[in-house]
Amino acid sequence: MRAVVVHGAGDLRVEERPDPQPGPGEVLLALEWGGICGSDLAYWRHGASGTAQLEHPLVLGHEVAGTVAALGPDVTGVEVGRAVTVHPATLVGEGDLPARIAGRTNLWPQVRYFGSAAFDPHTDGGFSQFRTVRSDQLRFLPEGVDTLRGALAEPLAVAMHAVGRAGSLAGRDVLVNGAGPIGSLVVAAAVHAGAASVTAADVSPAALRVAAAMGARSVLDLSAGAVLPADVELVFEASGAAAALGGVLRATARGGTLVQVGNLPGGAVQAVLGDLVTREITWIGSYRFVEEIDDALVALAEGLDVMPVVSHRFAMADAAEAFAVMGDRSSGSSKVVLRLDGKPVEDAS
């Protein structure tokens, strides 16, 4: 089979690997679509993502969908040919979470994740023609949700988890700072959750067009001199830019809530944080998701349209170009997806 493998910073290859065979409790998936995430870009650019350092070649990709190709021993309740996506997390070790975070398995001390170098040996992802997974990781795609949309369920789950961290959005005005793929999906999730209005802010006009298509009532082009509004009760920070924190905190109303969904740098940074104290802002972190991938599939089945976030489609053979396009904000890219099964790619750029 073919797979998209990163060997080091700037070294991305499409190479042949042996076809996997499902073991007990596993299924073999024939993957069709995969979405490139910021962590995939980080491995390609830097040979690392956060504190996870690449030590060996790694198959990238954790936003994937396809069909069941074969069943391993002892697998029941799964049919060959069924369209599925995958919950990419595997909890490592046994035990119980403290009562304060009971059920929040995204905060488990150690988690193996598709396409991650956090452990050695690394955990290969799903940018390949085939991959074996545990049957309990499967999430069946509802009728009317194709595998391209199914590959968007994982990042939509991240957005829905962030929205859920804020409590009820019904009737609330929302600001989303950062309109990249996750920020634009937060816009869609906030609208779906009943927000009265959503304003999106970014330095990229192309990103703002996506946010508007995803349901933002108004957009602010910060590169053209627009400024963040004042006294917003609920703000989602999705840019992950430490330099933006001062302005975002100032935009948050006194006693308001700021949900941090954009990944902040792991090292020391300069940031203006004084308003966090003087405005008594509640600053909430949001990390991956628990089971919101199920909620994402329900929302997609009910008609939530997240396809405007897909800006480019590439064949697996053109993965290097796909990564370059997604990594270049001047390209106008948002979510870039790979066709993993070798079928023709319909250009969406």
UniProtKB/TrEMBL annotation:
Transmembrane segments: none annotated. Gene3D superfamilies: Medium-chain alcohol dehydrogenases, catalytic domain, NAD(P)-binding Rossmann-like Domain. Its cofactor is Zn(2+). Residues 1-23 are annotated as: Disordered. The keyword Zinc applies. Keywords: Metal-binding, Oxidoreductase, Zinc. Residues 23-139 form the Alcohol dehydrogenase-like N-terminal domain. One of its GO terms (molecular function) is zinc ion binding. Residues 10-19 have a biased composition (Basic and acidic residues). Residues 181-297 form the Alcohol dehydrogenase-like C-terminal domain. The keyword Metal-binding applies. SUPFAM superfamilies: GroES-like, NAD(P)-binding Rossmann-fold domains. Belongs to the zinc-containing alcohol dehydrogenase family. This is Alcohol dehydrogenase GroES domain protein. It comes from Kineococcus radiotolerans (strain ATCC BAA-149 / DSM 14245 / SRS30216). The lineage of its organism: Bacteria, Bacillati, Actinomycetota, Actinomycetes, Kineosporiales.
